Amino acid sequence: MNPIQRHNALPASRALLLILLIGMGSLLTGQAADAPISEGKPTVTVQQPEPVVAPNLDLKEVAPVPQPATALEAFEESSAEPAMTAASPAQNDDEAGTEKFIILGAEVAPGTATRLAWSSDGSISGLATPTPVLVIRGERPGKTLCLTAAVHGDELNGIEIVRRVMYDIKPENLSGNIIGIPIVNLQGFQRGSRYLSDRRDLNRFFPGEADGSLASRIAHSLFTKVITHCDKLIDMHTGSLRRTNMPQIRADMRNKDVATFTEGFGKIAVIHTAGSPGMLRAAALEHGIPAATLEVGESLRIQEDQIEMGVSSINRVLEREGMYSRLFSWGEPEPVYYQSSWIRADRGGILFSKKELGDMIDMDEVLGTITDPITNESSTILATTRGRIIGMAVDQFVMPGYGCYHIGIESSEEVLADQEPPLIPAVDVE
Predict the structure, then answer these.
(1) pLDDT (tens digit, 9 = 90+) per residue, 302-321?
(2) Per-residue model confidence as pLDDT tens digits over 225-256
(3) What do you get for the CA distance between the two ends of the chain, in Å?
(4) Which of 52, 87, 283, 364 could form a disulfide with 206 if both were Cys (CB 3.0 to 4.6 A apart)?
(5) Topology of the domain comprising 340-410
């Protein structure tokens, strides 16, 4: 094309573009003229993106860290109602009428296991690390059980319990679904800390708020994206720093569904407590999801005997719920402790315990001694009630008022009517 031809072509192309723009403007004007006038905000139609199909994985094998499927999550949050309502694991139906299981932007096919990722938006986007979520969908329909651990980042036993339970399930033999989050509080776990990076206890902020504090936002994200997809919840914990707990279930036994749920854990003690406001299990129960806390051992340690007890208890739950069959010898159930109390130090010094977890004690029995390292003066700690040691401090330096022994008290179920929650004092709670 010579310069003259090029000069003549430019106005022609511009004219064509102008004609197209005028035509589009006319079309839009015509549509607007035919549409009714709305006095409110303009209506925006959002088309739901199709969820990705989650890959079928052998959870025992090493695999890359999963990445969040943000497209569907963004749609779900943008279209959610301000007030949370119970979500069903069955999101929609396929042509054959089989219910689809969609979570975290992915559809999990029947008879498969996969690793997904939950992103809480609780960190700088460029430094964010997605939290792995293990999902197993059974070959047959059934309930959805959720397993959470390390809501407190320094509680390690629960992490291993989730791993062992999830990795030992064959999807083809499972009825229903299992969702396992080994490390909820990834921020605390990376620092070996019970708390989030803002020094807040995540287990005091559920169900959370979308526009609240960092802890509240993380809690809201987990609750809406994962927990509301579950039919039942087991939240795993340990004793707080420098305390240890006998394997036990903590649950609100006033709720019949929860009480029935605890019967499936097998030979493990049950402690009645409604829990404190903001706890995950309390928020789940308020949302209509029966929930219990599994307490095993102490923080910052991996304890094989405690882990084995936790794995066995959850497997018994799967059996009891009709989700996964195993051969068990159930044995005699442990009692339900409808009351409990803490025995505290009256003076400061070095604690030397004479009793162990699980020991039965009588009134006025010597539980331990406290020795002043400077004056060498010693004093004894006496039992203030008859019962069983379900939690205790490890031998250490203690100050006056420190909770040294947590005593479970056997009593009648009738005491529930006369007691206000929570029955567990605000020390060493989940």
Answers:
(1) 999 999 999 999 999 999 99
(2) 999 999 999 999 999 999 999 999 999 999 99
(3) 79
(4) 283
(5) OB fold (Dihydrolipoamide Acetyltransferase, E2P) (2.40.50)
Neighbours of 180 (CB within 10 A): 24
Q: Rounded to 5 degrees, what are φ and ψ at 29? A: -65, -40
Say whether pLDDT at 15 is over 70: no
Top-confidence residue, 117 or 330: 117
Give the mean model confidence (pLDDT) for residues 370-380.
Answer: 96
| Cα(233)–Cα(385) distance, integer angstroms | 33
Query: What Å distances lie between residue 240 and 184, 201, 277, 395, CA to CA?
Result: 17, 12, 18, 14
CA distance 325 to 321: 10
Domains 52-320 and 340-410 share a fold: no
Dihedral class, residue 380 (left if φ above 0, else alpha if ψ from -120 to 50, else beta): beta
**Does residue 207 have a cis bond before it (omega within 30 degrees)?**
yes
Residue 319: enclosing H or E segment and its boundaries? helix 304-320
pLDDT for 51 equals 83
Write out the two tokens for 399. Answer: 């100050």
Task: Quote the pTM value.
Answer: 0.81
Cα distance between residue 186 and residue 192, in whole Å: 10
The residues, any chain, with a CB within 8 Å of residue 167's CB and separated by 6 or more, are 59, 60
Amino acid of residue 130: P
Amino acid at 200: R
Tell me if 132 sits within 8 A of 182, measured CB to CB. Answer: yes
Query: DSSP strand E in 84-166: where?
Result: 90-93, 99-103, 106-108, 112-118, 131-137, 140-148
Q: What number is the average pLDDT over the span 191-207?
A: 96
Q: Please, which pLDDT band fits residue 63 given cuts at 50, 70 and 90?
A: confident
Q: What is the pLDDT of residue 427?
A: 53
- Quickly tell me which residue has 């169900």 as its tokens: 207
Q: Which amino acid is at 318?
A: L
Q: Where are the domains of the chain?
A: 52-320, 340-410
CA 366-369-370 angle, 5° bins: 150
Give the contacts of 190 (CB within 8 A, at least 6 positions apart).
Answer: 153
Q: Omega into 422 within 30° of 0, i.e. cis?
A: yes
Q: How far is CA 391 from CA 193, 220, 243, 309, in A?
A: 21, 31, 7, 16
